[in-house]
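Hey team,

Sharing the Histidyl-tRNA synthetase run so nobody has to redo it. Sequence (157 residues) first:
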Amino acid sequence: MKYARLTKEQFEELHQEFINFLASQSITADEWEDIKINKPQTAEEELDVFSDLVWEGVLNQAKFLEHFSPQQIYLFKITEAAMYLIAIKVENTAIDVTTREGYDWLQKNLLDDSVSLYTSSKAISDDRNKDIFALIQQGAAITKGELYGFFEKHLEL
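Structure output:
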């Protein structure tokens, strides 16, 4: 397995897609029930293969990621060749940007001495999707990039 198995909730959401996946392998509903009972290892492998296929599709489409922690925000823009980072750090530990109040404070105080903005970039490795997945496992979420675009304009990158 290259990524991670989907959760029970994710499998439930993708129920029809999983049925189509099994059908593409000529596995009927009855055969799937038999596999789950009599060949649990094969069933596990099928779940893993399907999970990887779903992750590949999602990661192929990912262009922006965001990761929030109490005093930092990491915004990523991912292209085929590079990953760009805009990092916002709040030195004031009384401010928690993961809360509505802390985020509102940040919006009003971007030029405050306790706020630092950093940028960085790095080349994408041979496995772009694995790079993205590693960030997701660390807590990043795939987004449409609106926040990245806001800061990109203000930093004139």
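The chain has two domains: 8-60, 64-155.

Ping me if you want the raw files.
A.
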